[in-house]
Amino acid sequence: MQYGILPDDISKIILESYKDITIILKAAGSSKRILILGYLLKGPRSFSFMLDRLKIKRTSINHHLDVLLSSKLIDKEEWGRYQITEAGFEFIISVIKAYKVIKDSPQNEQEKIFNEWPDWPDFIKEPRIINENKVNNPALYEGGWNSYISSITGVLNNLGVQHDYVYTSGITGYCFLVSIPGIIKTSLIKENNSTDVWQQIHKGTESFGWQLKKWEQKRNNPGKWNLSGEDVDSANKVFNQVKEIIDNFETPVILFGVHGAGFGIINGYRNESYLVSSYYRKEGRKEVPVRFDQLRILDKFIYYYFEKETEKEETEVIEKKALERALEFAQGTAYSNGRYYVGPQAYDFWIDMLNQGKIENIDNFGNSVLGIYYFDAKEVTFEFLNRLARKYKNNPQGVFLKEASKHYRDAKINLEEFTVLFPYFEPENSSLTVDKRIKGVEILENVKRSELKAINNLENAVEKWE
User: Fold this and answer.
1) Is residue 262 a contact partner of residue 277, using CB atoms and an 8 Å limit?
2) How is 81-143 classified by DSSP, letter by letter?
């Protein structure tokens, strides 16, 4: 949005677009919708939050949210929460500035404001400086439910490393990983991994021939969705660092906390907002800028970028090391500890939680997130191993790769059934019943059996690799 437009130009825009302008004004022309925008200025909010604060019927809140969504003043996140858009932020700022001018002016000044072009409010007369920069060739989010792999794949493609989501996931070993912290609840369960696991994933990422630079900082107030106090200062620090990387190196940055606690690609910035490519692209939705203080993180700020190109090993060497890493992840023995359950142990924990887990540590939504996330992972694992099996069909490891691929396909089919039992949806409308728990346990036991067979074949493939 650009201010400082000449009165004649403003008049022309109004005469040509008065219907569209009226739609936006009508969208905000409700006390309840103004309240919603006011709440969202402080950070993303859920439907239940609005229900609790506005004290009106569900149908009325749905109507108000639909109106604001249609006008592009707000947007809906992956996890069923609502956030104000950059356009909505600019709109509200303009309205409040106009309100303050009118409220603080005597009556005769108010009349001048509305009747004399030269005396319009300062926020219209004085141009708002647009501070913007973006990389020349923006990277695009490529892939599925694993936001780290999708973002890494997009940036690597941008750098000329032309591989897809499946191959990137397989080489890093991420798709072979089943890592669950001691909780089956909230939207963040799918991104939690131990430090040792991340070190191996980063090693696999760098095998594509680019050195990965990582920066992270713990939050001052971990565990709370919305940033406040010193965390806002930290978010501003991160924003300025990312701006500097884009200005100096002209390379995309991979940032955590974009649109619902996931990784996204930062291709630039505009004023106080990141210009992103995220899972919105995967869903066919329009990308919207993300304000620096509206990242969604629980414990720490994290970003990555590829610093420089490095010497790359032969492809077969890379693929053998990738399979060894995949086997370690799949077995999980080296990575399971008091906080994380990795490999088959993760299924044991998941099953135990469904059998007798305390309600404060498990919910329907947590199962639905895990279900769709690991369904995606098994589908990718099956395809990756199938490609290797075809490539090395005349080598001793080929037959074992093919068998491992089949068993991951069986695990995928069972997890697809799990996603039907626990469909991905908004947590406000969820319930965890005894019948669902019993059926879920049965499915997960089948998944574990298939995966153990796959692990046995992975061991043989690594042993027989020439």
Assistant:
1) no
2) EEEE-HHHHHHHHHHHHHHHHHHHS-HHHHHHHHH-GGG--HHHHSPPP--EEE-SS-----S
Pinpoint the residues of the chain covered by CATH 3.90.70. Answer: 131-162+210-310
Beta pairing, strands 340-342 & 179-181: antiparallel
Which CATH number describes the domain made up of 176-185+313-466?
1.20.120
* Segment 222-258, tens digit of pLDDT: 767 678 889 999 999 999 999 999 999 999 999 999 9
Q: Provide the 3-class DSSP secondary structure of residue 146.
A: coil
pLDDT digits (tens, 9 = 90+) for 343-382: 999 999 899 988 887 776 677 777 888 899 999 999 999 9
pTM over 0.85? The answer is: no
Q: Which helix (H) or strand (E) holds 307?
A: strand 300-309
Provide the β-strand partners of residue 305: 213
What confidence category does residue 5 fall into, taking pLDDT thresholds of 50, 70 and 90? low
Residues of each domain in the chain carrying CATH 1.10.10.10: 7-128
Show the CA angle centred on residue 296, arms to residues 294 and 300, nearest 5°. 115
How many CB atoms are located within 10 Å of the residue 159 CB? 17
